[in-house]
Design brief:
heterodimer, A: about 260 residues, alpha/beta, 6-stranded mixed beta sheet, 10 helices, about 40% helix, globular, B: about 525 residues, 5-stranded mixed beta sheet, 3-stranded antiparallel beta sheet, 21 helices, 10 strands
Chain lengths: ~260, ~525
């Protein structure tokens, strides 16, 4: 990573909605190219708002947001969003479009011709491990896991460098969830993506991310690698937050030991 | 098996009425939809605008449709006068335009409401996804929100289409030909075949358009855009063809004869048209025009000639409440019309169609009534029936004032039903029309007006300012002046007003002319 400009840089961002109290209170954050960053915190901590600053679904009240060294406020929001993948809870597949049309939507907005879109869609479905014959189906006929995969494929369509994800693996069963998240991590590494993941599941953050930023009441209270946060959390809130995956892991280890003996 | 001649007659008029009806409803729907859709879209972001729009549309809906249609006529007349003053060009405020505007407004509520409901109902996650994948607000609307709201929007459009096609039948009195012509004419002449025919035709048309829209919606949601376009285009072409048919058959019509909405007027309009045609001039009639509409239509040149009644002009147009002698009134009226509106009065036809109080002969004898003067004493115990306008007309006020009349009850009804009502005793007295054939048919007693409270109502032939110097028209119509005595008019009226031997107005007019032509002046 070295001296390259950070993929994402947020400088002193403040946000309040119509004069209400601030949901972001002067947050600064750097995400290096290729990094997998998880934002964790309770609901209302500001993590989703912070993420949406990056693709301008939210505009900061004060402060600056840079993507690839460029101030996003100076460019066109629509063009920016076409360069950034976005996956969120509830997926938001367009119910009146087939899987193929959903997956290729950004490409069609970018003016690709039909044949090129068709080729790219086939590629993408393979990438997210979906069978090609799913392409003509409508979202209502898909399982939860399949919908999430289509959501990821749609976000990856225009080969973005940056992926923003909000609880992308929620609302599916644990086995599917595990498969989805490990498959995604492989994509992240293989495609050299920069990923920012919002989750309230600390375990997921610990297992997937290179670095974790913990938010509370509109501020980043602590950030670091999963290892360092697990080993030596400074803040009481973070200590409490990290205790849970640890306890769970210890309990599982104890149980496995019992089974072996 | 021979078909009822009234059915044959109804079929013969179908192309003209149906095509006009289709052209009108379709244009109104297109205009209503074209206005509502962008307004609804704009209002999505602004609850205040939304409230205002839906409120306004609801208020329009509460205005009775007949009144809404009628109100547009004077409004457009004023506007037309304004454009004439400003640009030297005026447009016809009669018929199509007021009907179009009123119906378009009428169609807006369901389209607005459903579009707003449909757009607001689109899942927030889907809207966020649309932004997230890089759609502009316009692309999100076109590619995601409108397609998802389509079923709800189409449901609104279908409701509007049924309303508009039904309500378009009420555009007849403002001079727009429609399937309503069957209904209005049928009601006036007790031609129930016409009434039923008009209702059934309008209902079938509404059903057909509803089904066409349903088909369109199915194809659109199945995303068979090509087929949807083809179906839509085919339907539109068909409807426009149906609409155009009538326009073509009417094209080249030089002169337009107007008629108000009752049998005598139908006969006279037919007679005038036949005289013009006999003189080699092409002519059409515009029937069922409202009393207030027809005079304005003459002045603005939308119609070229019609028959009115001196007393009506005297009270309604000149706003006079005195009742001078017959000749003096006619003379003063003619001068006034010429000076103020350049309307040419060709002359009186020779009969009078006055308001006259009539009773059953036995009932009058039992109460000892021979004149309106005698009636005053018994009036507080009696019910009087009249047409829709009489009780608010100045003649009624002066009649009441002159004789001190005060009835127990005043009941308004369709003039056609008035005679039946007095015969079966539902009312004791009616404000009959002196030239109606029913007076003789039911042997009713007409009450004398010794104080002359009601002005004379001589039938007068009026020619529009535009045609006031038209020698050919004047030559064609002048032979009618003074040649229609009351008995002949009554016979003709009775002929078209229901009953077993009912004839269409054109036949009655032809027979009337035969009598005129073969009788020495």
């Amino acid at each position: 990573m070295g001296s390259d400009p950070p993929a994402i840089e947020i400088l002193e961002a403040w946000k309040s909605y119509e004069g209400a109290s601030f949901v972001l209170k002067g947050i600064s954050l750097r995400v290096a190219a290729g990094e997998f960053l998880a934002l964790v915190g309770t609901s209302g901590s500001g993590k989703t708002t912070l993420l949406k600053l990056v693709n301008r679904l939210v505009e900061p009240t004060k402060g600056r947001v840079l993507v690839g060294g460029q101030d996003v406020g100076e460019g066109d929001a629509t063009a920016l969003r076409r360069r950034i993948g976005y996956v969120f809870q509830g997926v938001g597949l367009f119910p009146h479009m087939t899987v193929a049309e959903n997956t290729g939507i950004t490409l069609s907005l970018l003016g690709w011709d039909k044949a090129a879109i068709q080729r790219r869609v086939a590629e993408l479905l393979e990438l997210v491990r979906l069978p090609l014959d799913i392409a003509t189906r409508l979202p209502a006929t898909l399982s939860g896991g399949q919908s999430q995969r289509v959501g990821v494929a749609r976000a990856l369509a225009a080969s973005p460098k940056i992926m923003l994800m909000v609880e992308p693996f929620g609302a599916v069963d644990p086995i599917t969830r595990d498969a989805l998240s490990s498959d995604y991590r492989a994509l992240h590494d293989g495609l050299r993506l920069t990923t920012v993941l919002v989750t309230h599941d600390v375990m997921e953050a610990v297992l997937l991310a290179d670095r974790i930023a913990v938010l509370d009441s509109g501020r980043i209270v602590e950030e670091g690698t999963p290892q360092s946060l697990l080993a030596a959390p400074r803040e009481a809130y973070v200590k409490e937050l990290m205790a849970m995956p640890r306890r769970q892991a210890e309990r599982v280890r104890a149980l496995s030991a019992e089974v072996r003996s | 098996m021979s078909l009822d001649p009234r059915v044959t007659e109804a079929w013969a008029r179908l192309p003209e009425y149906l095509s006009a009806h289709v052209a009108l409803s379709l244009s109104a729907l297109l205009l209503g939809f074209g206005l509502s859709l962008p307004l609804a879209v704009m209002s999505i972001g602004s609850p205040r605008l939304r409230g205002l729009l839906l409120g306004a549309a609801s208020v329009i809906q509460t205005i009775p449709s007949l009144a809404l249609l009628a109100l547009f006529y004077p409004l457009l007349l004023a506007l037309s006068a304004l454009t004439k003053a400003a640009f030297g060009a005026q447009f016809s405020a009669l018929g199509f335009l007021p009907s179009l505007l009123a119906l378009a407004l009428y169609s807006m509520l369901p389209i607005l409401r459903n579009t707003v409901t449909g757009l607001i109902g689109v899942d927030a996650a889907v809207k966020e996804a649309a932004l997230g994948v890089g759609m502009t607000a316009r692309q999100s609307l076109a590619r995601v929100e409108l397609p998802l709201a389509l079923p709800v929007i189409m449901a609104g459009l279908r409701t509007a289409s049924v309303w508009v096609i039904g309500t378009a039948t009420l555009s007849t009195p403002v001079g727009q030909t429609s399937l309503g012509n069957y209904i209005f004419t049928g009601l006036q002449t007790q031609n129930w075949v016409f009434v039923v025919f008009g209702c059934v035709a309008a209902a079938l048309l509404a059903l057909a358009v509803d089904q066409l829209l349903a088909l369109l919606e199915r194809l659109l949601t199945k995303r068979e855009r090509v087929k949807a376009l083809a179906a839509g285009a085919a339907g539109l072409v068909l409807l426009v063809l149906a609409g155009g048919l009538g326009e073509w058959t009417r094209s080249g019509a030089g002169y337009v004869v107007g008629a108000k909405g009752f049998p005598e007027q139908y006969v006279l309009a037919a007679l005038l048209s036949q005289r013009l045609e006999a003189a080699g001039l092409s002519a059409t009639t515009r029937s069922n025009l409202g009393s207030a509409v027809i005079f304005n239509a003459l002045i603005s040149g939308d119609i070229d000639a019609y028959v009115d009644y001196s007393g009506t002009i005297w009270t309604n147009t000149m706003h006079r409440s005195d009742a001078p002698k017959r000749d003096a009134l006619t003379r003063e009226m003619s001068d006034w019309l010429g000076e103020n509106y350049r309307v040419k009065v060709l002359g009186t036809l020779g009969f009078e169609n006055a308001y006259v109080l009539a009773m059953r002969r036995d009932r009058a004898a039992a109460l000892g009534i021979r004149s309106v003067e005698d009636l005053a004493a018994s009036a507080p115990k009696l019910a009087v029936g009249g047409d829709y306008e009489i009780f608010s007309r100045p003649e009624w006020r002066s009649l009441r004032a002159a004789y001190g009349l005060a009835f127990r009850e005043e009941r308004q009804m369709q003039p056609t039903f008035m005679y039946q009502a007095v015969v079966d005793g539902s009312v004791d007295v009616i404000t009959a029309f002196s030239s109606d054939g029913e007076i003789a048919k039911y042997d009713l007693m007409t009450l004398a007006d010794p104080k002359g409270a009601i002005p004379p109502y001589d039938a007068v032939l009026l020619v529009s300012p535009k045609r006031s110097e038209d020698a050919r028209l004047i030559a064609a119509l002048t032979p009618l002046v003074g040649r229609i005595p009351i008995e002949r008019m009554r016979d003709a009226n009775l002929l078209v007003s229901g009953g077993a031997n009912q004839a269409p107005p054109e036949d009655a007019a032809r027979r009337l002319w035969q009598v005129i032509a073969t009788t020495p002046p």
